[in-house]
Structure formats: C-alpha cells, structure tokens
Amino acid sequence: MVALNLPAFAHKTKQVEGKPYIFDLLRRKYVRLSPEEWVRQHLINLLLTHYAYPKALIRTEGGVVLNQTQKRTDIVVFDRQGQPYLVVECKAPHVSLTQSVFDQIGRYNHVHRAPYLVVSNGLVHYCCCINHETADVRFLDDFPMFA
Fold first, then answer.
1. Which residues form the Type I restriction enzyme R protein N-terminal domain (predicted)?
2. Domain span holding position 112
C-alpha cells in the first residue's frame, strides 16, 4: 500500500487465499485490504490516538437509507448522547476529492445531521463544521477533538 499523509501505526495484515487482509481496529476482525480500507484504518487510528475518540462511539460501514436506497457510511462518530457527531468519507489515495465526493457526504449527512464532516483520500483531508440551523459551512484547519 502507498504511504499516506496520516500517522503510521502498528497495523496487522495477513494473506487469505492470496488476498491481503488488515485487522480492523473497531470490528476486531480481519477485513479485506483495499486502498480505501487502508485509508479508513489509518483514519480510525488517527481518531482514536490523536483526537481521543472512544472506540465505543465509532461505527464503520454503517447503513443509511437515502431516497429508499441502502447506502453505507465509511465512519460515523457519535457523541455521548448517541447523536451523530462526525461523518467521515474515505476514498482510495488515487481518487481525487471532487465536488461529487462532497455531494456524497452531504447526502449522507442529510440523514445524520452531524455537525462535522471529513473527506479524505489519505493524502488530502478536508474537515468542515456545519451549522444546520443557518446552513453555514466552515472549513477547519484540523479535525475536532472529542469533547
């Protein structure tokens, strides 16, 4: 896998029938290692170790129904009251973070209504804060610490 613009961590990988797998820090099992999963696991590690997000409040590959279609959010972090706090959309490093990626996470957040959104391909990261009352969007220089 390619080096990312995220802190390295002691990840575990293995081969199953000639295919690479990585140990998922949250689900506590090996999952198929794709370029997007490589980014997701690095972002999970970042949220846990650098921003103090509790494991118990992070969900990966969570389902969301959007226009009667089942979709999956890459990462959703909940606050201590169980409300969505941060939604993360991960892309593979070779995928450009275009307007369509921002539109995708915006559609997911139409359901979740989280105050923070993150989009990353492991090389470039964007984080924004959304005021749902005023529809004001403000890009941040860093991810929010868990409160």
1. 35-144
2. 13-140
Distance (Å, whole) CA 100 – CA 13 = 32
Q: How many domains does the chain have?
A: 1
Nearest partner of 50 among 6, 3, 81, judged by Cα: 6
What per-residue confidence (pLDDT) applies to 90?
Answer: 96
DSSP 22: E
Tokens of 58: 């992070």
Quickly list DSSP for 52-108. ---GGGEEEEEEEEETTEEEEEEEEEE-TTS-EEEEEEE--TTS---HHHHHHHHHH
Note whether residue 50 is domain-resident. yes
Helix, strand, coil percentages for the chain (3-state, nearest 5): 20, 40, 40
Structural domain contains residue 4: no
> In angstroms, rounded to a whole number, what is the distance separating the alpha carbons of residues 15 and 122?
23
Give the C-alpha separation, 122 to 44, whole Å. 12
Tokens encoding 140: 């941040």
Write down the pTM of the prediction. 0.91
The pLDDT score that the predictor gives to residue 16 is: 95
